[in-house]
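Example noted here:
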Amino acid sequence: MPNVPPPAALPGTPTKVTLPEGTSLFRVHASALAGAAFNPVPAGRLYGGGRFDATEDRPYTYLYAGLAPAAAVCESLLRSVPFAADGGPRLLPRTGIARKRCTFLRLATDVTVVSLMSGADLAAVGQDSWLVQAEAAEYPWTRNWGHWIRDRTEPWAQGFVWPSKREPADRVVILFGDRCATDTVTECEPAVDFGTPDGEDWLNTVLAPYHARLAP
């Protein structure tokens, strides 16, 4: 439902889901940002940014993660990597992984999020699958809807969960820093730095089922 403004009120009751303490999260991010730190950088209102980022006029810190390594990698790195016309593997440019890593996190406490997993979940917030399937060109609109949903689920909603667009069998989440304690997520094992030989091997292993690999 792009280019359609949110209604005056929620049409239904948003679905609450609890991610229990101990849930594993996998986060692909810039190495300069600490693995468990919430991102403080807002997206522009109209350009760049992610699906549910904060913006300058709607500030909050946030953290995206996958509930499986593949979801984190595919969402972060395979967004615009096309399949090869000759049937060969998709080649991920090395510029796409420059100074990036995957951090392994664990929830230190239960977290309550809005589920955007099903058609019924989406209908409860006045939306359909467009909200979680739209491509990057429409992120200014998905962000606007995300802010609207966030406002109407205050204070209990600590984030959203939805199906990964690029690995529908897995889930991805955004957590809101202003509604989570500072120790809500903790690092549970050493991060994988994609700029190392071991990191490249790990990444290629995750990418292989998606007919993709790092470019030579």
